[in-house]
Prior knowledge:
About 70% of the residues lie in helices and about 0% in strands. The chain is mainly α and about 450 residues long. The protein is globular. The mean pLDDT is about 85.
Amino acid sequence: MGTDAILQRQIGLRTATALVVGEVIAVGIFLTRAGMAKSLGSPFLLLVVWVVMGAMALCGALCYGELAARFPEAGGAYVYLREAYGSQVAFLYGWMSFLVMDPGLTAALAVGMASYAAYVFGLSPLGVKAFAVGAIALLAAVNILGVRRGAWLMRWLTALKLGSLLIIFLWALVFQLGDSSNFTPFVAQRAGSVPLIEGLAGAFVAAFFSFGGWWDVSKLAGEVRDPERTLPRALLYGVIVVTIVYVLTSAVFIYLVPLERVTSGETFAAQAGEALFGRAGGQVFSGVVIVSVLGSLAGIIMAAPRVYYAMARDCLFLPAAASIHPRFGTPARAITLQAALASVLVMLGSFNDIIAYFVFVTVVFIALTVAALFVLRRRDYDGATGTTYRAPLYPVTPAIFLLLVTLLLVMLAGNNPKQALLGVAVVALGVPVYYLIFHKTGQYRER
């Protein structure tokens, strides 16, 4: 393997859009809306939250589309942070991604999927871990064997996911298995609901994270054909599809299960499944969840290693991560590294608490990435080269996104300030690592 080889542009619009949709829609489509529905107690408010968060994600996607068009190379937010704020900020983002968020989310998705597989196949606790590690290893192997293979798998998993959800929609409506009176009252909150402001705040936080992952396609910009046209469209189409799916699934679930009967995510899904398919509904829904999570898992395993690859190319990470497989043309060692670390977390079983400490700082980096558009646009006025694609309605689109993200950060910090501070402190530990290991030794390669 060599570091002189470059990634080949083999990803088209269909695959890029499938990655956005496939990675975002996971188990949260069944679990998150239960808590939201229970706390809000109003079909209208539940649907409004999804539409508003879809609009917010769309604003962010339009901004990411311009950033990806400006810098069509591997790495996504790492590259945009580097170009706007310098290598130190970019390194801290990569430091957090590698140590915690990417392997942690990979492990969480794999174990979540394996837990549903345990329901279907009767796996033991050790079997659940083995299933999760096996899924990670299999998807990593597919992505090592070539980006075309990974792209093919991503397209099919997304198609299966959307097809399964479409069958659920049609089955419920054609056979009239629900009750339209579940939507009454449509606007007013049910008795026992959480107070309006508190309920909306919790629902918006849950919805934000249900949309998480749409930005990951930008990490593959170095392998996308005609990136200046493809990436903005993929982000736009993907977020629109996800928003439509979330609104429709919420409406169908309310049609099937009265809000008064909602207790938890698992029972909400089971109740909806039973209404659709009788006693076998639980297993049917488990199968749909497995396909949904597998698609999300495939997306993060495909996209995340490109950040380590980009960092290594800048001499800010392990040099081996910059290597490209001579036969398959993929960052095989970076993919292997992520899969190995995620597998270790699966076996240790300690990833959920770890992830929780870094949610706040992850959102901070997302905000900084979108804010980078203001920095780069300012440089355009100073004579720097721009791009043919421009985010529509600038500066309104980034401003709306940043306003809503700021409110989200206030809610996250207010809910658990110690957790937020600890996450920031651990990320800050990357500062001495950056200066003592990379910057001081002169390893960083200026771009």
